[in-house]
């Protein structure tokens, strides 16, 4: 397994380098750090020269990414003009805020999605199955910004008018206490959770149906094993093998920053930071968030592959 992990990591390095190179070149082609400074020349010549040297504008666009990558290998990810701090500090601060949303949203989505998948697979084409299927389709079709705005209006504004209390705060982040954290984080967590459940429950239902109708499940039932044990010990373990991949991708995407959700609720995470960097533009910060998202995707995909062997002992990595 160790050798397999090393091979997987080494095989992803060229892909990561290519992705970073294309992002750096693409942003460099579409942005101009000297745009506003050119208007005030020659009065701001000193500032013009500083920016010109900082971004290596005397070097070809096709060669600039290699300078950034060399600095990144030595731990220097650049300086974020958007937040007036090193990129590493901005990623650490904003990443923690995103983690406070992503972790509870993923845990809720994974648990509820799995429970709904098992329920729908055990009772296919029942009233409950149709109801959950309809809700899943709504979650898949409903844009995130619409769901977030609806929750803000209903639970953040109307709720106070109806009941005279305001349990949920929108437009700010508080984490001085658990109560303040839940008050400000509940609505964005519910938004991310609802959207994620839609994918996980439908994918899990399909996997469970395929396993439940297999020969070894019929054999287990014919031996007199209880239905609960057949489902939760035999069927679910094999159905989770394809589901683990979706869990890994979902969690990595949430940790990379949910751009729309964080923007709607003014949550100071990586998603909002990326939009801010894109509008400035802040090339160093964009590259930092890109490499963080890429590493997370590679890491969780590797974890998912290794979990296959845990769920199914027949899988070997020799």
Give a written overview of the molecule.
This protein has about 325 residues and is an all-alpha fold. The protein folds into 2 domains: about 1-75, no CATH class; about 85-310, MetI-like (MetI-like fold). It is built from 12 helices and 2 strands; from the N terminus they run αααββααααααααα. The chain has a two-stranded antiparallel ribbon with strand order 1-2. A hairpin with a 4-residue loop joins strand 1 and strand 2 (about 85). Helix 11 runs antiparallel to helix 12 (about 285-310). The protein is flat, with a radius of gyration of 24 Å. The mean pLDDT is about 80.
What is the element layout, followed by pairings?
Layout lengths: L1 H29 L14 H10 L9 H10 L5 E2 L4 E2 H36 L4 H15 L2 H20 L14 H35 L2 H8 L4 H29 L3 H6 L5 H10 L3 H29 L7
Antiparallel strand pairs: 1-2
Helix pairs in contact: 1-3, 1-12, 4-5, 4-7, 4-9, 4-12, 5-7, 6-7, 7-9, 9-12, 11-12
């Amino acid at each position: 397994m160790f050798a397999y992990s090393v091979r997987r990591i080494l095989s992803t390095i060229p892909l990561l380098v290519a992705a970073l190179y294309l992002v750096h070149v693409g942003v460099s082609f579409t942005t101009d750090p000297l745009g506003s400074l050119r208007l005030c020349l020659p009065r701001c010549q000193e500032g013009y020269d500083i920016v010109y040297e900082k971004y290596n504008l005397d070097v070809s666009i096709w060669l600039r990414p290699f300078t950034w990558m060399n600095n990144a290998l030595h731990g220097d990810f650049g300086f974020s003009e958007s937040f007036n701090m090193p990129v590493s500090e901005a990623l650490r601060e904003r990443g923690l805020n995103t983690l406070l949303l992503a972790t509870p949203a993923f845990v809720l989505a994974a648990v509820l999605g799995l429970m709904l998948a098992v329920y729908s697979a055990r009772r296919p084409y029942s009233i409950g199955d149709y109801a959950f299927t309809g809700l899943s389709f709504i979650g898949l079709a409903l844009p995130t910004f619409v769901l977030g705005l609806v929750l803000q209006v209903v639970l953040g504004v109307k709720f106070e008018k109806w009941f005279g209390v305001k349990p949920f705060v929108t437009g700010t982040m508080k984490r001085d206490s658990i109560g303040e954290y839940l008050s400000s984080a509940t609505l964005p967590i519910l938004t991310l959770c609802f959207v994620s459940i839609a994918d996980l429950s439908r994918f899990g239902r399909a996997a469970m149906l395929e396993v439940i109708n297999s020969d070894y499940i019929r054999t287990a039932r014919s031996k007199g094993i209880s239905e609960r044990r057949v489902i939760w010990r035999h069927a679910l373990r094999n159905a989770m093998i394809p589901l683990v991949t979706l869990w890994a991708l979902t969690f990595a995407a949430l940790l990379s920053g949910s751009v729309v959700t964080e923007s709607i609720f003014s949550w100071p995470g990586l998603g909002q930071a990326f939009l801010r960097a894109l509008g400035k533009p802040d090339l160093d910060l964009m590259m930092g968030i890109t490499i963080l998202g890429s590493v997370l995707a590679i890491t969780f995909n590797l974890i998912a592959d290794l979990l296959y062997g845990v769920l199914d002992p027949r899988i070997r990595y020799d």
